[in-house]
Amino acid sequence: MEIMGLFQVLPRLVVFDLDYTLWPFYCECRSKNEKPSMYPQAKGILHGFKDKGVNVAIASRSPTPDIANAFLQKLEIKSMFVAQEIFSSWTHKTEHFQKIHRKTAVPYNEMLFFDDENQNIQAVSKMGVTSILVDKGVNLGALRQGLSEFVKNSASVEKNKEQWRKFSKEPGSSKSDAQ
Ligand SMILES: [Mg+2]
């Protein structure tokens, strides 16, 4: 919460991978009957976003959504997520994000994403989502990095808009020539 308070601009939606991002295992290798546990700081981070009014969602390519869902229930976090896209896919989560975008109507550049696989990070960041590669799951270090990169990216989006406004107002620019 304290870390989130340091940032003036927060994302509207934060999307998390499951395996090796929220919890330290592949859930396809586990049994539904087991009692799962998360990375130590993951639950606090989810609640921190909720308390700040930031929505959270899941994008997972797990081939066992039934086990993933059972674990989300057991951890008592399932109801926190406004969208839960859990399905295996040949794309590197671009399909997951299209679905999340359709469901939530949040623009890609107002989302923040945490995942432990570089290919997912590369693909999703090309869509305009600020995407952070995590090493040992999501923790306060990753959170700080994610929020500061989000601020940097949204500042450059604003700057581009401003430059475009200036450009289109200048006499002799292509836009006024056309009119
Ligand atoms: Mg993962």
What is the topological layout?
Blueprint: H1 2-5, E1 13-16, H2 42-51, E2 55-60, H3 65-74, E3 81-86, H4 94-104, E4 111-115, H5 118-126, E5 130-133, H6 140-169, H7 174-178
Parallel strand pairs: 1-2, 1-4, 2-3, 4-5
Task: Give a description of the structure.
By secondary structure, the protein is an alpha/beta fold. The chain has a single domain (9-173), classed as HAD superfamily/HAD-like (Rossmann fold), CATH 3.40.50.1000. 44% of the residues lie in helices and 14% in strands. It has helices spanning 2-5, 42-51, 65-74, 94-104, 118-126, 140-169, 174-178; strands at 13-16, 55-60, 81-86, 111-115, 130-133. A 5-stranded parallel β-sheet has the order 3-2-1-4-5, with helices on both faces. Helix 5 (118-126) links the parallel strand 4 and strand 5 (130-133). Bound molecules: magnesium ion (MG). Magnesium ion (MG) is lined by residues 17, 19-21, 115-117.
